[in-house]
Amino acid sequence: MTVRSQHRGLSLLIAALTLPLGLTAAVTPASASASAKPTVVLVHGVFADSSGWNETIARLQRAGFPVIAAANPLRDLDGDAAYVSSIIDTIPGPVIMVGHSYGGAAITNAARGHANVKALVYVAAFAPDKGETPLELAGKFPGSKLPPALVVRPYPGGKDGYIDPARFRDVFAADLPASQTRLMAATQRPGSVGGLSGHSGVPAWKSVPSWFVIPSKDNVIPPAVQRFMAKRAGGTITEVAGASHVVMMSRPDTVVRQIVAAHTATR
Description:
Layout: H1 3-18, H2 28-33, E1 39-43, H3 54-62, E2 67-70, H4 77-89, E3 95-101, H5 102-110, E4 117-125, H6 134-138, H7 146-149, E5 150-155, E6 158-163, H8 168-172, H9 178-187, E7 191-192, H10 193-196, E8 210-215, H11 223-233, E9 236-240, H12 247-250, H13 252-266
Parallel strand pairs: 1-2, 1-3, 3-4, 4-8, 8-9
Antiparallel strand pairs: 5-6, 6-7
InterPro entries: AB_hydrolase_1, AB_hydrolase_fold, Sec-Metab_Biosynth_Hydrolase
Signal peptide: 1-25
Domain AB hydrolase-1: 40-257
């Protein structure tokens, strides 16, 4: 390899490493402008990870949408929202934010102050108002099977909540095959009890249009709670008969249709 080619290779490596940090701002907008569609930022909730969005991601990518499935830390609401917000900081073009479950509380706060966030899509998700907590909202109406199924395990500095594997399918994903939910139960990511008790700030849904996907058989966040939040936000609602809390896994086409509807209405 010649000295010139070594220098060129080093330059390309530096450019690749600094691009996510916004240090090559002249390059980023140009590449982003090549896409006519907004970046869809997907935020998972508690007891799950970004892989729960896989079917949704595949469909969005086939439709030409850039997608980022954020790794929600699940530690505390303020910190989780700040992390998701930092991802939005790196996206120069328009964004549609999509939250599942506790991820809805995260996007409600993370989208605040970002003019490029054009729509919020709540998928079986919390959409808290200022001062509300996810745990408070979950109990606003009866129907959640989560409280008696929680297994709390302490960790240094706090406590994590898991779903009892024996109850996982009934509570979280009753419309998925048992063979799949056994794996999900074993690999579930816990959520900090402190995080679930975190108070929301001023909600982005007061200034950003919202869409809601409400599964009729949600045993984590009762549908009545979701309807209350959606109507309060003035959101566009789609209800999914027979779907569980993980509607993005069991009915990904419905979720994608709401995201596309949000894009169509706000472009």
